[in-house]
Amino acid sequence: MHLPPGLAGLPWGDLDFLGWRDPGAPDRSYLVAPRGDGLVGVTLRVPQGVRRSFTKTTVCSVCVTGHPGSGVSLLAARRAGVLGRQGNTVGTYLCADLACSLYVRGRKRSQLAGRHEETLPLEERIARTVRNLDAFLDKVLEGEGEK
Ligand SMILES: [Zn+2]
């Protein structure tokens, strides 16, 4: 795993999870999130065949930030356990730069910012982001521990 550049300078207090793209492999991203009493790390890949077909979906399914065109990317994680060994993946639409936490907090702005102003209070947007991410991780880790 290639660690993200500038790790020490990251605004950890403002991050619900850490996500970054592999600088050596543009189709690969990593996501590390708190889970239970530890951390879980997931490798995400752009599924083959959809690389250039940017769909109409331009809303991140974790932080619900709207982006133009390629700002949202379909990323797939291999499922845990036997399902993953059978090649099963779970896909989700994510901010292509995986900076969901920063978009939610307004520390980073989408090019569509302003057009989709959210009325939800910040705490609820953060809670929703964590919930959405958890639901995704639930699916990824479903088969964990199965032989
Ligand atoms: Zn996002």
Could you report the average pLDDT, rounded to the nearest whole number?
86
Strand content: 25-35%
Number of domains: 1
Query: What sort of overall outline do the alpha carbons produce when their principal axes are compared?
Result: globular
Record the strand order, biggest sheet.
1-2-3-4-5
H/E element sequence: EEEEHEHH
The tally of strands reads 5
Estimated radius of gyration: 15 Å
Low-confidence stretches: none
How would a textbook summarize the main sheet?
A: 5 strands, antiparallel
How many helical elements? Answer: 3
Distance between the terminal alpha carbons, to the nearest Å? 25 Å
User: Structural class of the secondary structure composition?
Assistant: alpha+beta
Bound molecules: zinc ion
The percent range for helix content is 10-25%
What does this structure look like?
This protein has helices at residues 81-85, 100-104, 122-141, and strands at 18-22, 25-35, 38-45, 72-78, 89-95. With 147 residues, it is of the alpha+beta class. The protein has one domain (13-141). Strands 1-2-3-4-5 form a 5-stranded antiparallel sheet. Strand 1 and strand 2 (25-35) form a beta hairpin. The longest helix has 20 residues, at 122-141. Zinc ion binds at residues 60, 62-63, 65, 94-95, 100, 103.
